[in-house]
Batch of 2 targets.
Target 1
Amino acid sequence: MDYSDRTHKDRTVYQLALGACDYNVKDENGNIVVDGMIEMIEEHFKNLPMPQHIKDQIKVFEREQATIKIENLKTEYINNIMCNQYEGQFPEGQEAEEEKRVQQDEEALDKLMNVIKAIKDDENDDAYVESTSALDDTIHRIIRTEKSELADKLRSLVSTVMKAPSNEAFDIAFEAFERFLITQDGFIDEKATVFDFSLLKALYQFRNHLEPKEEQTFGKHFNHQLLDYASQSYADNYVRFGNDWDSPKNLFVWKKVLGGLDRGVPACDAQVIAQEPWSIMENGEKSRRSLKLTYGGESYYPLGGDSTREIGYNCSFQETAAISQGTMRRVAAFKTYLKQKFRLPCLPNTHTVSHKRKAIDEMSVLSVKNRRQK
């Protein structure tokens, strides 16, 4: 199980790194600033012991003094092992599956953002956004810190909502969750004679969509394109949502939506965010491969270190919003980093892949651009 509660089954170290897209990242000048685990691990494949039938063939080549044949034989054996592991993580047709996932993730985000857009921009509805955010914080605090019958019941209800396998199951689970919140003291403000649960439901539906519901045995662990899409959606609606970083709607999106996505990034990405992406991508600093935040001394992972400051509920670790030129540059640096993560990892010798993977970088980026233009 990784930091984001994804369970990975029957994976090798190489496959775990592939799934995390933990490969070399270059800064704006083309220098490698993040040393990828994929490349590090690939260097160690050459140290694998040769099986007996390869050893026997090597002895034949040694008698013939065929040094090149020996090297080619070893290289082919290692390439086959790497290729088999690669295709075990990214089987044929995986590109199409990733594209489908990207579209579904963006649709789920749009659904939540549309609910926020539909809330009127007046003082009363700002208060509704704030009260919904506060209710979510209260629920999370009780689940994370309290040991009581009420907390156990709340944990069970939230777990059922988050793990609901279908829209129908989600609606049934959330209805039970809503009834519990209404009947229990301390959740709904007494002044709110009628509390509209639509925003809270939309938020939990988005979380349900992102929740890992089964063991991971192939594919990418995380959709980096969704993180980029969400950041852009935040920027596009920044003025509409109050034109201030701490307006109720902008704060809700930053904490609950962007922060929620922050909870799912692989450790290699969390290390970059913790160090500040602009210092790596723009200033050319080497990644420290540390989860400790540059400012504040906190640790990005493990999640849940402090219930009063936990990403996805009451904070995010992303720099956002075009408040100033400096902030814009920082956000741009992060987007530059993310775009290098859009593609599937590629083998060093791509010709060894049976289905002849070609130009993954260009295909992935182009498909995203085409869909957004439409």
Target 2
Amino acid sequence: MVYNLYERQLEKQVKTFQIPGHIGIILDGNRRHAREAGLQNPEAIYHLGAAKLDEILTWSANLGVPRVTLWVFSPDNLRRTETEIGGIFGAVEAKMRALAADPHIHRKGVHITAMGRRDLLPTALLEAIDAAEAATRENDQITVTLAIGYGGREEIADAVRALLADCAARGLTTAEAAAIVSPETIRRHLYLADVPDPDLIIRTSGEVRLSGFMLWQSVHSELYFCDVNWPAMRRIDYLRAIRSYQRRERRFGV
């Protein structure tokens, strides 16, 4: 009863101030949560994390957050065991197929998209992601981007590679290509070049680092580190993160 009262008061307070236009979340702590819960099956572990996505969608939609980016899997994660990687991919695939067919997703106006290196992902997972994107393409209330097979360094390297390829296609010399390199020309070749930078980045599990999440885009993002593991994240934790953001003075280096 006390918890519910506090949650309602916190929500009312948060809704009084400006809501972040873009929230990025680093989903960390699945394995720690599993150990605490006594779970050992990798797919069961990551199904818990995937299930939390439904709540994040609901919380964000109710608050009017127009864009959320969730970091699900990085190239560094490929160093984990095949069983664990399979558990992650299996959980994400099942969730994508479920979301594509979920009428609640369409009622909330959720558009699902993805960014990252597709060549790192299995065919079945890519098909599920593509199906979810296609099924929600016309929705325009909230965009949820899965950063999967995604690394910030890889994104920047891919952007530079794409820029150089564009210069070569235009017949530019090396010197001419070098002359047009700028933050703006690199940005135009990022995975989702037209997406606004995240206002707020949340990392769960208590780790205090970005680990390569949206390195280019996070230069002016506000950061919030939450001690709770991702599958155990509560609405109250989400509201506290947004309240912390609202209390900060954003000066963008000025």
